[in-house]
Amino acid sequence: MLTRQSLGMEIAARIGAAREELSAQWASSAPINHFILDDVLPPDWTRQIRQAFPPGTAMTLRSTLREVKYVSAQMDRYDPLLEEAIYAFQLPEVVALIGDITGLKALEPDGRLYAGGISMMGRGHFLNPHIDNSHDQSRRRYRVLNLLFYVSPGWEEANGGNLELWPEGPAGRPLTIVSSFNRLVVMVTDKGSWHSVSMNRSEDERCCVSNYYFSKYPVGASEYSHVTTFRGRPEQPLRNVLLRLDGGARQLLRKVFPGGIRKSGHYYQK
User: Fold this and answer.
1) Residue 213 in contact with residue 147, Cβ under 8 Å?
2) Which of 143, 198, 200, 255 has its CA 20 to 30 A from that of 162?
3) What is residue 250's predicted lDDT score, i.e. its pLDDT?
4) Which pTM value belongs to this model?
5) For residues 127 and 108, what is the distance between their CA atoms, to the nearest angstrom?
6) Which domains does the chain have, with CATH numbers?
7) Residue 256 is inside which H or E element, if any?
8) Alpha carbons 82 and 70: distance in angstroms, whole number
9) 262 pLDDT exceeds 60?
């Protein structure tokens, strides 16, 4: 059976072999720094990870103006391979390599999978442009990196369900990164890292293994604090107004109640 150790060592070897190329990608991709690594694992291993995904009905459906997708962080409900795959990206060797490539200090993976875990997007599912919550659930560490590992075989750009980065903000034009099979995308998460997922137009499901890395240091020199904030797409003016009001209200609540009114349920309750 594949273990987090065997998976993690393969991931580390692949990242290490491409370190110079990935560092160049990161350095040249501002303002939303990111890098893309294909063929991360042997294809048969990645197919096994995809086959281990549960049906959407066994996950949590998020369905709002902001997003429609299935998510889960409660990994003990599913095939053990999924948990092994997620935590493979948290091995010290992998974290150290990514820290070296990005130059971000004191990176810490998240064993509780706050906002991480697995996601699945069926036909018609989407994720509107947004910036992620600036901190972890305890408000002690900054959320600084997002690691997205795509495992759906044969995925093409025409399917939709692709990652979009908005370097000019959500009123600009996005850069599309196809959710290709066996592809890892590592992107910065800060106050300007607007990103989204285009609507899935295919009958296939876009499946992703997600991790966040945290740090006691912010990205850049200045401190910041914000909730997850959504916008409408340029062709969605009404939705944009509603999402602005939604984000403003939640940001106000964060100021009044710094610890939040309720704790997120999206973490691994071991």
Assistant:
1) yes
2) 143
3) 83
4) 0.95
5) 26
6) 4-256 (2.60.120.620)
7) helix 237-256
8) 15
9) no
